[in-house]
Design goal:
heterotrimer; A alpha/beta; B mainly alpha; C mainly alpha; B: mainly alpha; 2 domains; about 5% strand; C: mainly alpha; Arp2/3 complex 21 kDa subunit ARPC3; two-stranded antiparallel sheet; globular
Chain lengths: ~600, ~300, ~180
């Protein structure tokens, strides 16, 4: 019997983008690849490696400049084959909102099957099945703008499933989801794969890529690795050269293994790490654990910069859509603090930030910012605070409106009425700080910048106000790991070197671990936990119950604690966790120490 | 600072559910009947026609069981505009109006002239406004947006066979309706972000048109830019789901017309024809002439 | 089915852009901000015609005309004055906004793209003003002299508004150089 034909065959794929007047971009330079029925494949690579371009070739959205692609035996250049190809290979994209076409969920899911010309009863059946699979059947009559981002993405997936494809391609489809949404998505994908679906997952996040059986890593348009996840992630040097970051757990394991050869360094998941450590820790006996001494951050003392007392706010009051966003919130932020507001979607974080910024008026309660009582807003007071508070909303790159970058960054200072020289100085400072060198970037077209660069430009536009207080709503959402690290480093610099007070609303726990000293956890409009970052994160179970994640380091340590080991409750970052684990382990039996090569990966 | 909650303003379909004949009409037939009556209104310039139209509209309103006060409330802001229009027409009277007739002056005071033509114009304009207003309210209050879209689709569908892009057009409406609330939320975020940067959308200071326009740039330009970006993403997503136009596709929803629907459509057609006939033969003049003769014969 | 050399179709492109511009039109008409520029004289220069112009310039006369059609329908539904409650006055002029804007732009593009955009915006707006007022006169709502006055007091500001906004949008989107040396900072 003949071997089964691969679902997707790619031979010597080249794709070149012709820019108008600009240099042509060779996004793909000879990719050879096959994807078999039923596989779970991840495609990874740094920005610009060609991932998205490759993905779009899988269902003939893009056509090869050179080379051959066959999908389900059909050549992608055959236009008549496109409907079949697209019903065999369905695709879900990064921005959930921008895939939904109709005014209700069920009408949108019907779109694909209708295009394929199926009978109405068949379409109904498919809608039901698809929505039930993703868990959105109950919400089938809802309009998209009332759904959360995670729900919208599930609707998009249902729309793809309704085509009954053999293969589902997800082009960075989890980028805009919160951790809970991402976990849901991963569970869904595992389920689909178990039922025989071929899954192609394009992602930045290595922890997601570990779901796959096979990982294809791209570098500058070529395949740099095509093998099992394990074979890729154990080679940290190779990962670094590809511009990728290992999953946090793998990183942790490798750090520990460097100093303790008996620890398995090639680990993909937390369970594997725990299992690997178990035999060693069981032998530890009464090896006394070390508690990392973590001094409490000194009391800032003096007047707090921001005080809120018993704040209440209701959205769309007096309409059928009214929702209580804040239900009695009290908090303080002191000068040069870095405070995080944590909480699941809908907990009120964004709303609180907007109140602090003076953009919303509380329905009850008190708000004092920088010495001004802003509870009952008056235009005059608002104006006095302008320029002293900066706020960065989600997807701030959307606020750019000028043709040239420099002009947009200059907008704030110009509105403050500063003279040309002062404006120029501020813009230069802000842009250099954000890694967009002033001379090089000021005359660039805003729309020619990459997504990450535009976000930096937007932040520069807020920083050019030189605010004392900087409020950020999900600053790293949707960013790839490298851009994320850059941004966090800049934020830390702003606090330590420039003395800016920062308040972040986020659900990215790893950000919080690295950056903030104090945390308020909100749920349903109320503060449910507060304190130093360490103390709050030590209550992992409570956080999980709220639907929040904990940083990977904390997750590992908590798992160890639960088994009665390593009672060092203060590890927040990977490095601290590595140190803590090493201190709990018995010394290596062979007596030889692994080569010391320090430094963070 | 007023609360920036743009979703408040964006309720296009102010659907009011009632159990009435009008509500239960097949949306295709409702739309066709509505269009026919609107055509009648558009081409009615006689008093007679408008009397009949007002009666018809009142009948439909009562059939729909919709609250009268609520429906008419929207007319209130129109009153000053109406008064202004009337004033302008009395100051600058148009040459003639409606079926050719001579305008005789009824009343004059300084620059203000009231002729029979002006009077007719004012009355008919007001009547038309009221009729159209109530008709559109009737339509939007008694039909959900989904029904409206499916209805339009259904009406235009037969044209698909002769190459008319019926589905494509209804898809434009669907997508537009779907994005209005989303863009409203987008605008809200934009306004807040730009205000926080010091943008001033108010109208303080001496007025200069270019300055006033430039104030809106931080709001309008990003709105367009983001919408265009979203469009690019949506285009790809729709292509990926195999959209190739209305020709080969099927409809999930099936609308079924009943006898009431046909009756309604026939009645609307008949009524429209009648109104247009009244206008063409200038029934007003005929009636007035007949009335004169009748009164004369009584003497 | 026309494609652009890749796997996406021109049809879908036109549908989506038209729809998005219609959505913006509706939005500007419903929200208290951005839909018009209030003048001290009490006259409002509107911005509602701008999406039709932008759509026409970016995607051609079909898209521009389509957006105009829906703009007309929308203004018919929302109108509170007898003039705009007249379907003929509300719809017919609007069909031409995007079409004339595109034609002007396409004709002048080879000389200077930015100027072509500006002229296109001006002509699109002017078409709207002239046709609306013209139909209003024909239908008997106003005299020619009144129409002329309104054309000047209302029409000219509307043209300025349209040109400023359209040029800013298209320049930013298409990355057309508005100043030889770039930003002013």
């Amino acid at each position: 019997m003949e071997p089964a034909q691969p679902l997707i065959e790619i031979q010597d794929l080249h794709h070149t983008y012709e820019g108008a007047g600009a240099e042509p971009v060779h996004a793909l330079r000879g990719v050879n690849l096959t994807i078999e029925d039923g596989e779970f494949v991840a495609i990874v690579g740094a920005n610009g490696s060609g991932k998205t371009t490759l993905a779009r070739h899988l269902n003939a959205l893009l056509l090869p400049t050179r080379g051959r692609i066959r999908v389900a035996g059909l050549d992608v250049h055959d236009r008549a084959a496109w409907p079949t190809i697209r019903s065999e290979v369905a695709m879900v994209f990064q921005r959930p909102e921008d895939q939904i076409v109709a005014t209700t969920v069920e009408d949108d899911v019907a779109f694909g099957p209708e295009n394929l010309g199926h009978a109405p009863q068949e379409i109904e059946r498919r809608i039901r099945r698809a929505l039930t699979t993703v868990g959105m059947w109950e919400q089938r009559q809802r309009p998209p703008h009332l759904l959360s981002v995670g729900q919208q993405q599930r609707v998009a997936i249902a729309g793809a499933l309704a085509m009954q494809p053999r293969c589902l391609v997800l082009d960075e489809a989890t980028a805009m989801l919160d951790p809970a949404g991402r976990r849901q998505m991963q569970a869904l994908l595992r389920g689909l794969h178990a039922d025989g679906m071929t899954v192609v997952l394009i992602t930045h996040w290595m922890s997601e890529a570990t779901l796959a059986e096979r990982i294809i890593a791209l570098q500058e348009g070529r395949v740099a690795h095509n093998g099992s996840p394990r074979s890729l992630f154990i080679d940290l040097d190779k990962l670094a050269s590809l511009g990728l970051e290992p999953p946090p757990v793998s990183l942790l394991a490798s750090k520990v293994a460097r100093h303790h050869p008996e620890v398995p360094g090639e680990v993909l998941t937390q369970d594997e790490l725990i299992d690997g450590l178990t035999p060693l820790l069981a032998d530890a006996g009464s090896h006394p654990p070390t508690t990392l001494s973590t001094p409490e951050p000194p009391d800032a003392g003096g007047q707090p910069l921001v005080v809120t007392r018993d704040l209440h706010h209701t959205y769309l009051a007096d309409t059928p859509l009214a929702a209580k966003a804040l239900n009695g919130v009290s908090a303080e932020v002191y000068r040069e603090d870095v405070v995080a507001l944590l909480g699941p979607t809908g907990s009120g974080k964004s709303t609180l930030l907007q109140h602090i910024a003076g953009l919303l008026e509380p329905h009850a309660g008190q708000m004092t910012v920088l010495g001004q009582d802003t509870s009952s807003s008056r235009e005059v007071d608002q104006r006095r605070l302008r320029g002293r508070i900066g706020i960065l909303f989600q997807r701030p790159e959307e606020q750019l409106f000028e043709t040239y970058v420099g002009d947009d960054v200059a907008f704030g200072p110009r509105q403050l009425g500063l003279d040309h020289q002062a404006v120029r100085e501020r813009v230069r400072w802000a842009m250099d700080l954000m890694g967009l060198p002033f001379q090089a970037y000021k005359d660039r077209f805003t729309q020619s910048l990459s997504g990450g660069e535009r976000r930096k430009a937007a932040l520069a536009g807020v920083l050019s106000l030189r605010p004392q207080l900087l409020l950020l709503d999900e600053p790293t959402a949707g960013l790839d790991p490298r851009s994320r690290r850059d941004l966090l480093a800049i934020l830390r610099h702003l606090n330590t070197a420039e003395g800016m007070t920062l308040i972040l609303a986020t659900h990215n726990m790893d950000d919080v671990a690295v950056l903030t000293e104090r945390v308020y956890v909100l749920n349903e409009g109320q503060v449910v936990m507060e304190g130093t970052t360490r103390r709050v994160f030590s209550r992992a179970a409570q956080l999980r119950a709220l639907g929040l994640d904990v940083p990977s380091a904390v997750s590992v340590m908590t798992a160890l604690h639960e088994r009665g080991w390593c009672r060092s409750e203060d590890a927040l970052t990977i490095d601290e966790a590595a140190a803590a684990i090493l201190s709990c382990l018995p010394p290596p039996r062979s007596g030889q120490n692994a080569v010391e090569d320090g430094g963070e990966a | 600072m007023s609360q920036l909650e743009f979703l408040r303003y964006v309720t296009i379909g102010q659907y009011l559910g009632r159990d009435s004949i009008i509500h239960r009409l097949d949306p295709r037939f409702k739309l066709l009947a509505f269009t026919l009556i609107v055509v009648a209104v558009t081409f009615s310039s006689t008093y007679t026609a408008n009397v009949l139209l007002v009666l018809m509209v009142a009948l439909l309103l009562s059939l729909s069981k919709l609250p009268l006060g609520h429906t008419l409330r929207g007319l209130r802001p129109a009153l000053p505009a109406l008064a202004l229009l009337a004033l302008f027409q009395m100051l600058f009277p148009p040459q003639s109006f409606g079926p050719a007739q001579d305008c005789t002056v009824i009343w004059q005071w300084g620059f203000v002239t009231l002729t029979t033509c002006t009077l007719q114009l004012i009355v008919v304009s007001t009547a038309r406004l009221v009729e159209l207003f109530v008709l559109t309210s009737l339509l939007t209050f008694s039909t959900t947006t989904t029904e409206l879209v499916h209805g339009t689709e259904g009406v235009l569908a037969p044209l698909q066979r002769i190459g008319f892009p019926a589905h494509e057009l209804t898809l434009v409406v669907t997508i537009a309706l779907r994005f209005v609330p989303t863009l409203a939320l987008q605008m809200e975020r934009l306004v807040k972000a730009q205000i926080a940067r010091g943008a001033d959308f108010g109208t303080s200071g001496p007025f200069r048109i270019i300055k006033a326009t430039r104030r809106l740039l931080p709001l309008l330009v990003p709105l367009f830019l983001i919408s265009l970006r979203r469009s690019e993403a949506l285009i790809v997503a729709m292509d990926a789901r195999g959209y190739t136009g209305g020709r080969q596709r099927t409809q999930r929803r099936r609308l079924h017309a009943g006898p009431t629907d046909y009756v309604a459509l026939i009645a609307a057609t008949g009524f429209c024809v009648a109104i247009l006939w009244i206008d063409t033969i200038s029934l007003d003049q005929v009636l007035i002439a007949w009335l004169d003769t009748f009164l004369a014969s009584l003497k | 089915m026309k494609t652009n050399g890749q796997g996406t179709t021109v049809l879908v492109r036109r549908i989506v852009i038209a729809a998005m511009m219609v959505a913006i039109t509706v939005l500007l008409g419903l929200l208290p901000v951005g839909g018009f520029i209030p003048f001290p004289t009490g006259v409002n220069a509107t911005t509602l015609h701008i999406p039709a112009i932008v759509g026409g310039i970016l995607e051609g006369w079909m898209v521009g005309g389509l957006i105009g059609l829906f703009f007309g329908l929308f203004s018919l539904i929302r109108a509170a004055t007898p003039i705009f409650k007249d379907p003929l006055v509300a719809i017919i002029p609007r069909l031409f906004i995007g079409i004339t804007a595109y034609l002007a732009y396409a004709g002048l593009k080879r000389f200077n793209e930015l100027v072509a955009v500006g002229v296109g915006a001006a002509i699109g707006t002017g078409t709207n003003t002239v046709l609306v007022l013209g139909l209003a006169v024909l239908r008997g709502y106003m005299s020619i002299s009144l129409a002329g006055t309104v054309a000047l007091t209302h029409g000219i500001p509307e043209i300025i508004v349209a040109v400023v906004i359209t040029v800013s949008v298209v320049a930013a989107w298409r990355q057309i150089s508005t100043r030889p040396r770039g930003s002013t900072v």
